[in-house]
Write a structure and sequence with these properties.
Formate_DH_maturation_HycH
Length: about 90
Amino acid sequence: MAEACGEIVFWTLRKKFIASSDEMPEHSSQVMYYSLAIGHHVGVIDCLNVAFRCPQTEYEDWLAQVEEEQARRKMLGVMTFGEIVIDAS
C-alpha cells in the first residue's frame, strides 16, 4: 500500500474470521466459506500484519529493474490504485 508519507507498506494476512454471533445453518456456512475461497468479503474481517516497509523512491528504483513486464505492471498498481493484492492466483 502506498502511504501518504511516501512509503510502501507490505501487509500479510494473519487470519480471517466471520463477524457473527448467530448460529448459521450448514448450507449457509458452505456458501460463506465458498465466498471466502473465491475472495469475496461478506462480513469478513481481515487481520493484517506489517511485513515490510520501504521508501517509495527505493520501491520505484527496484521496480525499474524488474524485467518481467506483467510483474512490473502489477507492482506499479500500488502507485495507481494505492494498493494491490499479491496471492497465488
